[in-house]
Specification:
The chain is an alpha/beta fold and 198 residues long. The protein has one domain: Rossmann fold (3-Layer(aba) Sandwich). Strands 1, 2, 3, 4, 5 and 6 form a 6-stranded mixed beta sheet that branches. The longest helix has 19 residues. It is elongated and about 70 Å long. The N and C termini lie far apart (92 Å).
Length: 198
């Protein structure tokens, strides 16, 4: 008696290949966050230019702009004008850390018209090599109260977008997706009030 071929075997292989195909086009992210202070009052945020700890020139500026754009789209988030934060930096190479050495918290509240600042550091902005190059973006971020200097919220995010066949992810699109996720999380964590521009 001849052994019959199980017709489900090819189907299983097809299913497996489809799963691998779909997985290869997905992205993954890992993050941790914490809330150290329960904020009940509404307040306005100022985004300080992000520090860049990568070898990619301009990564800090790129991610700052993407994050600010995504935060603006959140319905209950109000930001201090970005020009106010940038004006506090002495030159293009200055970092946000210098702002805290140069000004008292009360001065920052007045100059930024904000109750808290977003301070970030870009930790990864690179194409990792493998079978296909894949973009990886990392960001450490904090929200610091300008009332007492306490950290209200902190998170560490890394996002990697995997490429497949004719699709290749980019650093900018990967960073934008990550910033959108962080902005949404922040929006759900706090309530904000409008900033009255003088």
């Amino acid at each position: 008696m001849n052994a019959s071929i199980n017709p489900t075997i090819p189907q299983r292989w097809i299913v497996c290949m489809l799963v691998l195909f779909l997985y290869s086009g997905c992205e993954y992210s890992r993050h941790s966050q914490r809330v150290t202070v329960n904020v009940t009052e509404q307040f306005a945020l100022a985004v300080l230019p992000f520090n860049n700890q990568t070898n990619q020139m301009g990564a800090g500026k790129i991610v700052t702009e993407l994050f600010t754009t995504e935060l603006i789209t959140q319905r209950n988030v109000t930001l201090s004008p970005q020009e106010k934060a940038e004006s506090l930096l002495s030159d293009q190479t200055a970092t946000a850390d210098e702002i805290f050495y140069r000004y008292q918290l009360k001065e920052l509240r007045e100059k930024l018209s904000a109750a808290a600042v977003v301070k970030g550091t870009v930790t990864e902005f690179v194409y990792k090599k493998g079978i296909r190059e894949r973009p990886v973006v990392g960001l450490d971020i904090k929200i610091i109260s300008l009332q007492d200097g306490n950290i209200l919220w902190a998170g560490s995010y890394t996002r990697e977008e995997l490429s497949f066949l004719f699709y290749e992810g980019s650093l900018n699109s990967t960073a934008q997706r990550m910033c959108r996720k962080i902005a949404g999380t922040i929006s759900r964590s706090f309530k904000f009030k409008e900033v009255k521009n003088e």
